[in-house]
Amino acid sequence: MRHACTSPSGTTLPTPAVESVRTSDWGGDEVRFVDGGAWMRYATVFREAKLGSQVLERRLGIVATARNSRTIGALLELARSLDAAHPQ
């Protein structure tokens, strides 16, 4: 199955490149392309991972960054507190 992937900026990523990343053997690491983002799960710890944002940058020709779930949770909480403090 072939997957088209669109970045958050609206750029459509090349399907063969996305498929290459998705189907490569990452030694237990996993990647899923969902809603304009790539979700990565590491088999062990990040510093030992074969897969990372640098792989996505090189293979897909994009600028990528990675955040762990704790940081994502903190950012969501910050956004919620800002919404509560400044309702529209």
Give a summary of the structure in a few sentences:
The protein is of the alpha+beta class. It contains three helices and four strands, in the order ββαββαα.
Would you mind describing this structure in some detail?
- It contains three helices and four strands, in the order ββαββαα.
- With 88 residues, it is an alpha+beta fold.
- The chain has one domain (5-85).
- The strands form two sheets. The chain has a two-stranded antiparallel sheet. A two-stranded antiparallel ribbon has the order 3-4.
- A hairpin with a 5-residue loop joins strand 1 and strand 2 (12-13).
- Helix 1 packs antiparallel against helix 2.
- The N and C termini lie far apart (43 Å).
- The mean pLDDT is 83.
Which key terms come to mind for this protein?
88 residues; alpha+beta; two-stranded antiparallel sheet; 4 strands; globular
**Mean pLDDT, as a whole number?**
83
Number of strands: 4
Strand content: 15-25%
Instruction: Spell out the helices and strands N to C.
Output: EEHEEHH
Helical residue percent band: 25-40%
| Rg calc | 15 Å
User: Which stretches are poorly predicted, pLDDT < 50 over at least 5 residues?
Assistant: none
Enumerate the strands of the largest sheet in spatial order, edge to edge or round the barrel.
Answer: 1-2
Kindly report how far apart the N and C termini lie. Answer: 43 Å
Topology:
Elements: E1 5-6, E2 12-13, H1 15-23, E3 30-34, E4 37-41, H2 53-60, H3 69-85
Antiparallel strand pairs: 1-2, 3-4
Helix pairs in contact: 1-2
